[in-house]
Amino acid sequence: MDTMSEARLQTQQRSSRNGRETSLWSSGFGMKLEAVTPFLGKYRPFVGRCCQTCTPKSWESLFHRSIMDLGFCNVILVKEENTRFRGWLVRRLCYFLWSLEQHIPLCQDAPQKIMESTGVQNIISGRAPGGAGEGQGPSLVKKEVQRILGHIQTPPRPFLLRLFSWALLRFLNCLFLNVQLHKGQMKMVHKAAQAGSPLVLLSTHKSLLDGILLPFVLLSQGLGVLRVAWDPRIFSPILRALLKKLGGLFLPPEANLSPDSSEGFLARAVFHEALAPLGLWTGALAALRSLRGWGRGRRVCARVHLAQPFSLQEYTINARSCWDSRQTLEQLLQPIVLGQCTVVPDTEKEQEWTPVTGPLLALKEEDQLLVRRLSRHILNASVASSAVMSTAIMATLLLFRHRKLLGEFSWLTEETLLRGFDVGFSGQLRCLVQHTLSLLRAHVALLRVHQGDLLVVPRPGPGLVHLARLSAELLPAFLSEAVGACAVRGLLAGRVPPEGPWELQGIELLSQNDLYRQILLLLHLLPRDLLLLQPCQSSYCYCQEVLDRLIQCGLLVAEETPGSRPACDTRRQRLSAKLLWKPSGDFTDSDSDNFEEAEGRYFRLSQQSRCPDFFLFLCRLLSPLLKAFAQAATFLRQGQLPDTESGYVEQLFQFLQATAQEEGFFECADPNLAISAVWTFRDLGVLQQMPSPAGPMLHLSPTFASWDNQEKLEQFIQQFICG
């Protein structure tokens, strides 16, 4: 769910207030009005499709072309037409009548289903520890199950649920101007729910209000009430009884959820059969806690994105067939960083940063890998289905010092849409830019220059850090081109000085094999949670995709060499032996070319007038992360080790802040970048984690204890950074 402030098409200029600087915010730009709409012609990107490789049946059965044309609806807009009644009294009571007509399915046989579940039956029959075989008869165990189940939940009361939904509807209308939902996305969820299998919903929680919006949207769209688990220690008995009647679930006191605990087997078995992750009350309290800040501001708009559902059973079957050999980051990159090897191994990177929890450790190693790869699929779908907001586009333009904000804002919006990412705004261009700047007014300053023009300047320090975080939301849309541009920069680093003219860089011939190598090196260096690569996609396929994107956007042009086959020759050719052993999932349209002929293919940087600025724009998208990595390599000489992971992250973050004050590049002063750098260096073998009485401690690897190897590491990272 993305929250955005009110942006009406009929936005008028507001009167000046609070002095001279405020008058600059409301002053006109003196430009011709141009409408920016969230679509190109009649085409609007439909985002959030599931993986066609791992779930082809879901990809096809839960989607139809007509879904794309259904458009948006406002889920909190309830009128007379939304009820069965008509009349002037209905128009005044439509919220209450609508809540009475909501269908709330009640599972009357839930206690019996839990009693008959496999886990509970194993304990009753004595086949599991803590059951009838340890001194308790089956009848006593059944009574204990009923007692635990009564503590966890009681049958929900439909009237209380409808009353609460009415109050929630009124509250949301006071808080939001509208809540948009794509009817096509909702139709796909309805199709999945009609299949009869349980529907599991995962939220990325981009806002504290997600917990109140998502359950309400699902209830209003006829998908029923979700249940949420609570810790009973934080509520009084009266409030706990009320919440249980509203559908709340409460953990029994003895339900220690750690899998290696010898107590509470029965409570854990019952609780695992009854828990669901979300409910109406999670966001209700969060919204009430933050009501003070929201109540003083203007009403805002919100959009709820729902990615395409897919069958977990289908994914489990197909995902296991896509596994291949993998190596650690230390095995892949460390020999190349130290100059001991120049060939990049033809294998995938093994890098899993999924939090290791008790339930995950209880699974088999094969199932753990399945869960981790499923999480990467879900993360990819959630990012792809999220709309890019106007503040992200404006922050990117301000960070890269674009002067013509009106024209560049329109251009960057169009480029985002062309890459299949949706945007969360529409309206007059001038009004959009003015409104977006008003949202960022705490982080930018407006200065009036000659002839009535306005100069927008980011405020140094925390303002630049905030703009960098907003700009990061735009990176997924341009990630392939950004990786390719930084790889080209690394390839040219040893030939042309970074400050050299563009014409000089365009003279250099870039072979396809060298481009593949540089792209692979950068792919291995960057964290997987940034790249958002799907587990079923090989690195080679992604390298070819990056190269194709650079050609499509006009940065690279093919160079015909004497005796080579023309690049435009698409006739069918015999597949080489090297291509035949590749898994079926690794084929793309461009893979039909002979691998051996890649050595004879060369490219040049395009000499079009727009290419230098676009190349620099793409390189700077990855600059905050890469510069944080480079500064982390520099910090190896001053860091205090051994230290805990959190302690060393804090050391590095303070160093990034101090460096930002000296150099004026505040985009790196982000604690998340410090965490990514420490984790990457740990995987690379620069830092080693060793046990100690105080817990795991980070030590500097003996290999990188020498300044010479530290310098090699820093130079390896610096080659991808464009000044």
Give an overview in words.
This protein is an alpha+beta fold and 723 residues long. Among the domains are: 51-105 and 139-253 and 298-321, no CATH class; 363-473; 624-719, Arc Repressor Mutant, subunit A (Orthogonal Bundle), CATH 1.10.10. Helix content is 47%, strand content 9%. It has a four-stranded mixed β-sheet with strand order 1-7-4-3. The protein has a three-stranded antiparallel β-sheet with strand order 13-15-14. Strands 2-10 form a two-stranded antiparallel ribbon. Strand 11 and strand 12 form a beta hairpin. The two termini are 35 Å apart.
Structure summarized in a few sentences:
By secondary structure, this protein is α+β, with helices and mostly antiparallel strands.
Output the radius of gyration.
Answer: 29 Å
Mean pLDDT: 76
Overall number of strands: 17
As an assembly, this protein is single chain
Distance between the termini: 35 Å
Helix content: 40-55%
Query: How many alpha or pi helices?
Result: 33
Strand order across the largest sheet: 1-7-4-3
* 3D shape: globular
Give the helix/strand class: alpha+beta
Strand content: 5-15%
Main sheet attributes: strand count, strand direction, barrel closure: 4 strands, mixed
Low-confidence segments, ≥5 residues, pLDDT <50?
1-42, 130-135, 254-265, 268-274, 276-285, 570-596
Task: List the keywords.
723 residues; 17 strands; Glycerol-3-phosphate acyltransferase 2, mitochondrial; alpha+beta; four-stranded mixed β-sheet; single chain; Arc Repressor Mutant, subunit A; globular; three-stranded antiparallel β-sheet; GPAT/DHAPAT_C; disordered N terminus; O-acyltransferase activity
